[in-house]
Specification:
heterodimer; A: mainly beta; Porin; 14-stranded antiparallel barrel; 3 helices; 14 strands; globular; disordered N terminus; B: mainly beta; 2 domains; 24-stranded antiparallel beta barrel; 2 helices
């Protein structure tokens, strides 16, 4: 029974991860928020793009990748700021005890209303280590780390451009997803936000592109997004009351199924 | 030196490139279109400037790193000390030391370091109503037909030859003497291209006459005429081989038109710089508009080294400044044939690049993407580069700059990434598919400035191999007054 489950997970999870690797997707601290400068602690750790607000933030997120209960990510993260500096820390677990991994993430940076830049680092460790295996003997066989950075700037009123390099350097066990340089831009006016992203080619894959539109109405933000290779779309909704927010997003992959993201937290401003 | 694009009828190139007549016709059409575009662009307040595609000069091997000294001048009475080390993790570092000084009558520099391509020294002093020096030689005579030619066939002047060049190149080593501030007499003796040469040049008003000779009795002479912004040069050797070049420049307001024509014998080689002799025939035009709103630059050039080996290039660069801190640049380039006298002929290439740069207090962000393809509109890409750079200013002149680029280079092609160090510019050759992060930190320290850089490679290949090991540099520089 257990062997069959492991086989099933391997059969479905690995192609899913490989498919995900074709784009600059989030992974351990993924959050159901819009791309670009972070509005949640997890998103800051994920992209290295610091949030504008300096107030304390706390969020918990849950992601079920491609409808696979064996491939779920659970994460908690917190952030704080003082004057221009921003820091964030988080903990995440992905997968089941016998196949998954745990991760801790740290991010720090500076942010102004018109721009910001940050560094992020994530360290992972496999949750199940068989005695006598290579992973049990060598640290680099059971753990890995990655360091990256991000920066954004307000190029014009309502127009923000960013660059995120989540994996400038990595060591040890390879990250589950290859995340190359992502360049993006968003334009916001009167509650309407449009965004475009381009991820640089990674390995033998071509560049990926994404686009989306978000509409804000009072405490609600609804958005729809689309990505290529393969063509797929997603929708999301965020509701906030004072500093509390709850967010949900669904992205449908034509071959691998739906990915569902949920987030709950406290933040100064939710996008 | 820091740009590239070419075309050329060669044996292989002729299959994919049109003949000389067609190229000429195309160049004329491009020139007309370019002129129209120039007018439209000016009206639309667009502007031009870009780094384009960087490539080393023709005397350097393709696919290898290239380093050139920045022509950073010292004020009178200043002395500069520098120490540095560079290497890869796990390898023995390369140490460098340098001293530069500039006194009222005496100036010079000394660099040393094992494996440092810029190692060596030069010193100059005032003597006999002129100045004399020994060491590095990179002179330029007239249009550069004998000494000081431009690296690229489409360039009007060398960026690393002559006293006013932005880089200090190295054509040879030896001694020189120049009489008077206007350099009415210049003599030199040195070793150029593994050959000992003696030469001299006299200037009388707009005229200049120079001659070069080697120990074997080979001799070349140059007659030049410079009137304002029009310059002519005729070069001859003993065998009767000759080349002539005329360059002129006219300005109207913020706009400048420059043209250059060269003709002569294909087998005339400069004794001093045979690998930089350049094409025997060339026609080049450039339109520039340096307006307050930005810059536009349009170039078109045709050249031929020898029958079957030549090229053509058309390029447009536009830089629009939105304010003091923000700009957007876009460029287009088409090449045929080859810009080099020997080696492979790349053939048709067409590419474009775009760059945005913005700045807020203490933070700079720049994004750039470029593609060069073997087919029209950049298709069949041979080089694709995406880069992002963030720079943070810290207290007391400190700063942090991070540059990340992702590249894909087709087999047989070369890509050079520009690195600016405290005392030099490096064109780092990369190939294949990969990514690179360069972290640079500058800070005051020990009475001077410390610059540190770390390069993290992410290339396709075996982990732990030479190409994937991080590269680092550490440099300390201090400037002081000698009196």
């Amino acid at each position: 029974m257990r062997a069959a489950r492991v086989t099933r997970v391997t059969t479905f999870a690995l192609p899913a991860i490989l498919a995900l690797a074709a784009r600059a997707a989030s992974q351990d601290f993924t959050s159901a928020t819009l791309p670009g400068p972070a509005s949640s602690a997890g998103a800051f750790i994920e992209s290295g793009l610091p949030q504008v607000g300096a107030g304390p933030a706390l969020d918990a997120s849950y992601t079920r990748w491609f409808g696979l209960p064996e491939l779920e990510t659970r994460a908690v993260a917190c952030a704080a700021g003082w004057r221009l500096t921003r820091v964030a820390a988080g903990f995440s677990q992905t997968g089941e005890p016998d196949l998954g991994w745990s991760a801790i993430g740290l991010a720090c940076g500076v942010a102004r209303p018109a721009g910001g830049a940050g560094l992020r680092a994530v360290a992972r460790r496999e949750r199940a280590i068989e005695p006598g295996s290579a992973a049990a003997v060598r640290l680099e066989a059971r753990a890995g780390a990655e360091v990256g950075w991000g920066a954004w700037l307000e190029a014009a009123r309502g127009l923000r451009l960013w660059a995120a390099v989540p994996q400038s350097w990595s060591t040890g066990v390879a990250p589950p997803l290859g995340r190359p340089l992502e360049i993006g831009g968003e334009f916001e006016r009167d509650g309407l936000t449009l965004w475009l992203t381009r991820s640089a080619p990674s390995g033998g894959a071509e560049a990926d592109h994404g686009a989306g539109v978000a509409l804000r109405s009072g405490p609600l933000v609804a958005w729809a997004s689309v990505r290529d290779r393969p063509l797929r779309g997603g929708v999301g909704l965020t509701a906030s009351a004072r500093r509390l927010f709850v967010a949900a997003a669904v992205e449908s992959h034509p071959e691998l199924g739906e990915t569902v993201q949920l987030a709950l937290g406290l933040a100064g401003a939710v996008r | 030196m820091m740009r590239a694009a070419s075309s050329g009828p060669g044996t292989a190139a002729r299959r994919c490139a049109p003949g000389s007549a067609a190229l000429l016709a195309r160049a004329l059409v491009v020139a007309v279109l370019v002129a129209l575009l120039f007018a439209v662009a000016a009206r639309a307040q667009l502007a031009a400037d870009s780094t384009g595609y960087a490539e080393p000069p023709p005397e350097e091997p393709e696919g290898a790193d290239y380093e050139v000294e920045s022509a950073d001048s010292l004020s009178e009475g200043a002395i500069e000390l520098g120490m540095g080390a560079a290497g890869r993790v796990g390898s023995k570092p390369r140490q460098t030391r340098r001293v530069r000084f500039n006194d009222r009558t005496l100036g010079g520099s000394v660099r040393e370091g094992e494996g440092d391509p810029l190692a060596g020294g030069s010193i100059e002093t005032g003597v006999l109503a002129g100045r004399a020096g020994v060491g590095r030689l990179a002179p330029r005579w007239g249009r550069g037909l004998l000494l000081g030619a431009a690296a690229e066939p489409w360039s009007a002047a060398a960026s690393d030859r002559g006293s006013a060049a932005p880089f200090r190149g190295r054509a040879g080593r030896g001694a020189w003497y120049r009489l008077g501030e206007s350099e009415v007499l210049e003599t030199l003796y040195g070793r150029f291209a593994k050959c000992d040469l003696t030469g001299g040049r006299v200037r009388a008003g707009p005229f200049g006459f120079g001659a070069l000779a080697d120990r074997a009795g080979n001799a070349q002479s140059s007659l030049s005429l410079c009137q304002g912004r029009t310059e002519h040069e005729l070069a001859l050797d003993r065998a009767g081989r000759w080349r002539v070049e005329t360059a002129l420049e006219r300005s109207a307001g913020s706009r400048t038109l420059a043209a250059r024509v060269r003709g002569g014998s294909a087998d005339l080689r400069s004794l001093a710089e045979p690998l930089r002799s350049g094409p025997a025939r060339a026609l080049a035009m450039e339109l520039r508009d340096d307006a307050r709103w930005g810059r536009v630059r349009v170039q078109a050039a045709l050249w031929s080294f020898a029958p079957g080996r030549g090229g053509a290039r058309a390029a447009l660069e536009v830089r629009r400044r939105f304010n003091r801190r923000e700009s957007v640049a876009m460029g287009f380039e088409e090449r045929h044939g080859t810009p080099r006298e020997s080696g492979r002929i790349p053939g048709f290439r067409q590419g474009a690049w775009g760059e945005w740069r913005g700045e807020v207090a203490g933070l700079v962000l720049a994004l750039r993407h470029e593609v060069l393809g073997a087919e029209r509109l950049g298709r069949a890409a041979v080089r694709t580069v995406t880069a992002a750079q963030a720079e943070l200013e810290g207290p007391a002149g400190s700063g942090l700059r991070i540059t990340h680029c992702v590249y894909r280079v087709r087999s047989g092609e070369n890509l050079y990434l520009i690195e600016t160090a405290s005392d030099r510019v490096i064109l780092r050759a990369v190939s294949g598919t990969g990514r690179r992060t360069r972290v640079e930190l500058r800070a005051p320290g020990a009475g001077g400035h410390v610059n540190a850089a770390l390069e993290l490679q992410g290339v396709a290949g075996a982990p732990g191999s030479e190409a994937t090991r991080p590269r680092w540099t550490l440099d300390w520089t201090r400037r002081a007054r000698s009196r």
